Amino acid sequence: MNDTLDALAARIAHLEDLEAIRHTWRDYCICLDSGDWTALGDVFTEDAVLEMDGINHLIEGLDGRYHGRRSIIDDFYRQTGRVLPQGTNPKFVTGHISTNMQIDLQGDEATTLAYFFEIVANDRVLIGTYQHRFRREADRWRFGFLRISVRFRAKLEASEVGGQSLTGIRARPV
How many domains does the chain have? Predict the structure, then answer.
């Protein structure tokens, strides 16, 4: 009987870890799309590394490696707002659809592969992959490494772009 309970407890712990990893990934997308840099920083470990491949067409020099949470947020993510055309409202900088996350969980670490579809700067589409290396920390799973690879990009015909900010939508009670 103890073996059965131990096996069940291990299976539940495994499922809880998988869900916690997915939760961190969702937090990343929502915080990025909301421009919540403080909360976005919280999904990364202090010593995390971000590797960007395929965005130099928008901002020259942004491809590369960023070391540490502060650099990732300040030197990479805060700089991505520079892709906005003159006079564009920043609430439309980015919007993600992220899917197909494959998770390989090994104790206190996990590696993943996920796809993304993103609209940036109101008139660009990026399609690519996220590769994560997660690490369990005392309070949550965090990214120790994130590689973003753009596999496809295109400029769209766009006029009269409008809508609502994710921040404004999230601020309304449900």
Answer: 1
